[in-house]
Amino acid sequence: MDPRERIARRVAKELKNGDVVNLGIGMPTMVANFISEDIEVILQSENGFIGMGPIAEKDQIDKDLVNAGGVHVTSKKGAAFFDSAMSFAIIRGGHVDVTVLGALQVDENGNLANWMIPGKLVPGMGGAMDLVVGAKKVIVSMEHTAKGKAKILKSCNLPLTAKGEVDLIITEMGVIEVTDGGLLLKEIAPNISLEDIINSTEAKLIISPILKPMEY
Amino acid sequence: MDKIISMENVTAHLKDGMTLMIGGFLANGTPDELIDCLIKNNVKDLTIICNDTGFPDRGIGRLVVNKQVKKVITSHIGTNPETGRQMNEGELEVLLVPQGTLIERIRSAGAGLGGFLTPTGIGTVVEEGKEKIVIDGKTYLLELPIKADMALIKGSRVDKKGNVWYNKSTRNFNPIMATAADVVIVEADEIVEVDEIEASNVVTPSIFVDYIVGGRG
């Protein structure tokens, strides 16, 4: 299975019935494809609505309806539209249960860097800083390494998006919880050895005494 | 008072060096004909407050490509490589602001507030130079209001008095910006008679709108 699909499938398992969820641009968006049909999850789009549906097919495109990535999407029955001040009252005010974002770097203290590489890439933070600070649960979903370089570090060296806000890190290699004592490896992918994941992680991993195979 | 004016009459209100708020989110809900007007008149040295700089060929990005912008205050420039290029060459000043902070700064200006306290940006470069205030043991940044000489917004339906209704995700920054500028011009998809937007469904009350343009669908 494509590693990105494995990650998206595993993230989808974190979502519960009734959760209000904001999915970041890119891989996090894929999570929507794998949410169990047994639960209802309300997707929030920070450009101003809840009840986001799938990407619009050609004949469903409405010029007045895009997601926060500017892509034409659909809205579900019971959706609601609002302005950006309301959207960020929802986000900062703790009314979003789960936010799922990508990362350039994440570290042992739950710090996240995902909005700029000085001198190289400065897209801006968009709504990420508010989402990470405001959501009840912050899940980083990303490939474990970038071109072989570790992204899970002892300490981020890129400009931070937020300090100490990350709760869970889900990669194609495993599931890691950020705890007060450090990074706790809770699940490991079936084809990955402990040595593989430790070698691909700069931060120290605490191996859970009840380490489980990663389900997806 | 007749608020409906032609695009030619907009020209008289445009000045080099002015500060503009422009509504929209990645070119959705952006007043494109007003941007055409700014381009046609080649208004220069603009400071633009906006969610993002759109794309090189769509939305606010066209003003950047046409080198009419001196400074942009925004949350995201990643979809317009020209903004990044001009920033790196020192041709354009870019101030990046978290999206929720940007909209609330605009809201504060329009709502008569002296600022607000937000946890967003604590422990990041966003906190540099800002006052920190602790409330009930939690640290917040003091963020200040931001206003403009003019707001250019987009409405889906606008009645002849200036009441505005926005369709779906086109609402975004538009109604908040309408409260925070000296002059507000709304570009309408459709101009309708008074009362055709039911009073309960008005999003931006007419008192915020100075001029209406467009209405050609």
Sketch the topology of chain A as an H/E string, one letter per element.
HEHEEEHEEEHEEEEEEEHE
Structure class of chain A: alpha/beta
The shape of chain A is globular
* Main beta sheet of chain B: 8 strands, mixed
Strand content of chain A: 25-35%
CATH class of chain A: Alpha Beta
Q: Helical content of chain B, roughly?
A: 10-25%
Write the CATH architecture name of chain A: 3-Layer(aba) Sandwich
Say what the CATH topology of chain B is. Glutaconate Coenzyme A-transferase
What is the CATH level 1 assignment of chain B?
A: Alpha Beta
Average residue pLDDT of chain B: 97
Query: What is CATH's topology name of chain A?
Result: Glutaconate Coenzyme A-transferase
> Mean of the pLDDT scores of chain A?
96
What is the domain tally of chain A?
A: 1
Shape of chain B: globular
Q: In total, how many domains does the architecture of chain B comprise?
A: 1
Q: Which parts of chain A are unreliable, with pLDDT below 50 for 5 consecutive residues or more?
A: none
Strand ordering within the main sheet of chain A = 4-3-2-1-5-8-12-13-14-15
- Strand proportion of chain B: 25-35%
The main β sheet of chain A shows up as: 10 strands, mixed
Descriptive notes:
The complex is a heterodimer of chains A (about 220) and B (about 220). Chain A has about 220 residues and is α/β, with parallel strands linked by helices. Chain A has 5 helices and 15 strands. Chain A has a single domain (about 5-215), classed as Glutaconate Coenzyme A-transferase. Helix content of chain A is about 15%, strand content about 30%. In chain A, the strands form 3 sheets. In chain A, strands 4-3-2-1-5-8-12-13-14-15 form a 10-stranded mixed sheet. In chain A, strands 7-6-11 form a 3-stranded mixed sheet, with no helix packed on it. Chain A has a two-stranded antiparallel ribbon with strand order 9-10. In chain A, helix 3 (about 85-90) runs parallel beside helix 4 (about 130-135). The interface of A and B includes residues 69, 88, 124, 159 and 162 of A. Chain B: Belongs to the 3-oxoacid CoA-transferase subunit A family. Chain B: This is Butyryl-CoA:acetoacetate CoA-transferase alpha subunit. Chain B: One of its GO terms (molecular function) is CoA-transferase activity. Chain B: Keywords: Transferase.
